[in-house]
Design goal:
heterodimer, A: alpha/beta, five-stranded parallel β-sheet, four-stranded parallel β-sheet, B: about 140 residues, mainly alpha, two-stranded antiparallel ribbon
Chain lengths: ~350, ~140
Amino acid sequence: MKASKKPVALRRYVIHTLQRIGPYACDTGDAQLTGGLRVTPPDPKPWELRKVPVELDPNPAFAAYAHPERLVSADWLSAHLGAPGLKIIESDEDVLLYDIGHIPTAQKVDWHLNLNDPTVRDYIDGEQFAELMRSKGIERDDTVVIYGDKSNWWAAYALWVFTLFGHPDVRLLDGGRDAWMNEQRETSFDVPEYPRSDYPVVTRDDAPIRAFAAEVREAIGREPLVDVRSPQEYTGERTHMPDYPEEGALRGGHIPTAISIPWAKAAAPDGRFRSRAELEEVYAGLDPQTPTIAYCRIGERSSHTWFVLTHLLGFPNVRNYDGSWTEWGNSVRAPIVTGPEPDGAPAAE
Amino acid sequence: MTLTPALQEIVDDFAALDDRDRATLLLEFADDLPDLPEHLQTAAMEPVPECQSPIFLSVDAADPAAVRLYFSAPREAPTTRGFASILHQGLDGASAAEIAAVPSDFASTLNLASVVSPLRLRGMSGMLVRIKRQVAEQTAG
């Protein structure tokens, strides 16, 4: 049944591929912006921009945020398609979504296939990141705009990983893929091929924005912890999201002292970020000046919260515990609290 | 443990392709997933809070010689749709015994790990396990 029609369909695909020799392949007139192979040492605050190759989005809706330069609107992106020094990345939960139509000139980066180390549960290293950037034609000085599905969960996650390598100018499309698609904007099937870049090898710098289990344990009772999962996951009623038992944990509940602020409270129904005033209300229980750690299940929803706290509210010291519940809830003797209350730190052993 | 002839054919189709064409074939399966029959459409609209890729699955084993399978997943979830469509084309109309005989790790034989990641492939195993369980429950006793 399938076999009888497959050859036809694949032939159609081949023709489509041939049409791809495209307008975007010669689209990197940014020689004046590239500084050659220059190893940039990790910046202690990698999100502080030093150079902005592509003009910022002056959208007044962003002005109240602490770092409006970290967001672009669909209008802005539409007007800047093809701008020298601009690279667009789609990063989704569903790895094939890009292939059914994407923003013109966008390239795909998949969190699991491209950003995670294939063997160790960790991110790729500086060599691998440089190779990924080179293969996408991304220069160190390029403006990278990332967008994705699910209110930008995976886009925020990718942006966070770019930040581990201190990529200077990386922004999110507010509202993500939905913001573009819902406005019936132009989409493309063309997979652009840029000339390889000479992206430098930059050592990944985890310390400023990434927390490990031992550090989280140390933080109990000392630093605020934010659990951004659903209320059912927080109380322990559920150890995984429905239909995703493979990302579950042996034990349910939350890390002692963690307060529950589900990530979705930061997103409007259309997937865009809520206003500064609304966000300040949502996160009123947190002090911007106190170091804070966010976690979820595998670190993607807490990347969304990390972005909000760091770039929209201007918290200078937020870390994402990417091991999150799939690590904590499976660890022998890790302290756990069930029920709706944060509860105190366990007594010293 | 054996595959149905239709499922084996799908495995062979994927095996004959390289990664890029495997992704294309999976997208074609996603396109081919039939809409739900009308009598199931209301149930499918129940929202699942926080669900990553909402998938509706219905198994009708009233006739154990020809089990009917119904799936629904949104267009914005092409990988999930592709998985559902493979199971639909490979198992719809098969007997309860044939479905029970499909190895639970069948998904790993599709050579899709480097296309969609092994983590996501487990989503298809999850669907298959639920189908097998529902068939077993409906045909028990």
